Amino acid sequence: MILLQGVSKEFRPDQNVLSNLNLKVEKDEWVWVLGATGAGKSVLIKTIYGVLAPSEGKVLVLDEDVASLKEKDLAKLRRRLGIVFQDIRLLDDRPVLDNVVLILQALGAPVREARERAEHWLGKVGMNDYLQRCPYELSTGQRQKVALARSLAKQPEVLLLDEPFSALDEIGEREMLKLLGEVNHAGATILAVSHMHETLRFLPGRILQLKEGALQ
Amino acid sequence: MSAGFVMKQGSGLFFRGRRISFAAAAIFAVVLSIIGIFALGTFYLLTFKNDVESRLEVVVFLTPDADPDRLIGQFVNLEGVVEGSAVSSQQALEEFRLTLGDDAELLDILDENPLPPSVRLKLSPEYRSRAQLDALEEKLLLFDGIEEAWIDRNLLDRLNKFLYVLLGADAFVLLLVGFSAVLMTMLATRFAILDRRRIIDLYWLMGVAPRTLKAPYIIEGLYEGFFGSIISYGIVFVIHLILSPLLGSMGFPALELAAVLLGSGLLFGWLGSGLAIDAFKLKRT
Predict the structure, then answer these.
(1) How far off is chain B from A45, nearest CA to CA, in Å?
(2) Which of B195, B198, B201, B208 to mutate to test the interface with A (most CBs of A within 10 A)?
């Protein structure tokens, strides 16, 4: 599903953010990569998603060499992936429902189906009462839920999460973990990165530590 | 890719970004009006040329003993000759008298009519070129009883030359103003892209195909060209109405002009937005 072989990423010479990183995430697996701020977690997620190109090494996702893909093939691969960015990235001037519906429509879903799927997943994350609100009217935690619903509505084979619950309270976090558990059980592979070590006690799946750009 | 979604996005770009879209459409209208005015001028000249050509006759002067009817019978068998009519010396003199008007009295001093009998031949439109007229003249001179064949080639040559010059100017204007229209569309599309950069990046990150991302901007360009061509059509029509008292019965080439303006508008809109969107790089570090 996800295979990283000797992946390094540097933005300046001799300053590796990721250093000779090897990682294998199997199908249906749920892997957490934990690390302190600046450990390279977001860079790892972005490299896997094809937003950043590795300086060295190979990144394979769903058997595709991400760095070598052409634009249209990268888009095709991304359609099979779901992602929640650390900075959330919503359309601030469009209602919550549109934030999901428009993406699904742009990915080829008919209007009605897009709306049904959007309502379903926004309901699952508990945002049913906020469908017509714009993201700027929401808290960061609620915005994270919308971003998660947007990713899940794509029905991804692989889900990449960058600090997905950083702004949620404990109850909200447990609810989202339960939902992700269902999604994982239904066949989605999950790779999540977080700095929240205190949540370790109820994190499902395999847990890895990222320190100074290297997995431990 | 959902065609409906792309169309909706493209329409949204055009109608939501009113100021910039309508400014682009207005520039198109000006550019296309210039093209339209040149096209209209060319049409007028073509109509005039056809009118002149339709009146073009070959005048074959005969010897006094020639039989005009027999010769007409032979001439109409020649390629390109549609019909012929005999003009006696007397008829020719009367016509000449009418042409001279008040000066016709001058003819009274002549003892005898100096004008020879003649045959006037009308030609089919496709046989009115210089080369074909030369070939026809050669054939006519081979007949017995022919003194001379006369064709007003100069008028035809002048008209043709003027037409070529105008067509050259048309092509030049089309190229020049077309280029500016394409540049303007490129600029307008660039502004629209910059304005929506964040959204485009988001769509791109979510896996939306580059084709789907770019298509709405092409549609926006086509809209600009379309509305520009409609406005310019109106402008050119008004110009025709203003000129019509001077033009007599000359018509308005409604369909042809609509095709030229709409075709140019859509082409320039597509080219301009297409070039701008192709230059846009999707983020990948």
Answers:
(1) 13
(2) B208
**Structure confidence by residue, pLDDT tens digits, B123-138:** 887 777 778 888 888 8
- How many CB contacts within 8 angstroms connect chain A with chain B? 62
ipTM for this model: 0.88
SS3 per residue for B266-280? HHHHHHHHHHHHHHC
CB B59 within 8 A of CB B118: yes
Q: How far apart are CA A149 and CA A147, in angstroms?
A: 5
Of B202, B210, B283, the CB nearest to A72: B210
Chain A residues touching residue B211 (CB < 8 angstroms): 72
User: Got the DSSP string for A80-99?
Assistant: TEEEE-TT----TTS-HHHH
Condensed to tens digits (0 to 9), the pLDDT of residues B153-165 reads: 777 778 788 888 8
CATH number for B57-151 (one of 3.55.50.30, 3.40.50.12580, 3.30.70.3040, 3.20.20.70): it is: 3.30.70.3040
Residue range B84-142, pLDDT digits in tens: 888 888 888 888 888 887 777 777 777 788 888 899 988 887 777 778 888 888 888 88
Map out the domains of chain A with their CATH numbers. 1-80+158-163+190-216 (3.40.50.300)
- Cβ of A76 within 8 Å of Cβ of B212? The answer is no
Cβ–Cβ gap B2/A91 under 8 Å: no
For chain A, give the longest Cα–Cα distance: 52
End-to-end CA distance of chain B: 26
Cβ of A154 and B207 within 8 Å? Answer: yes
Q: What is the dihedral of CA A103, A105, A111, A113, to 10 degrees?
A: -80
Nearest residue on chain A to B208, judged by CA atoms? A107
Given A75, A91, A105, which is nearest B209 (Cβ)? Answer: A75
Which B residues 28-87 touch A at CB under 8 Å? none
Mean pLDDT, chain B, rounded, equals 84
**pTM of this structure:** 0.70
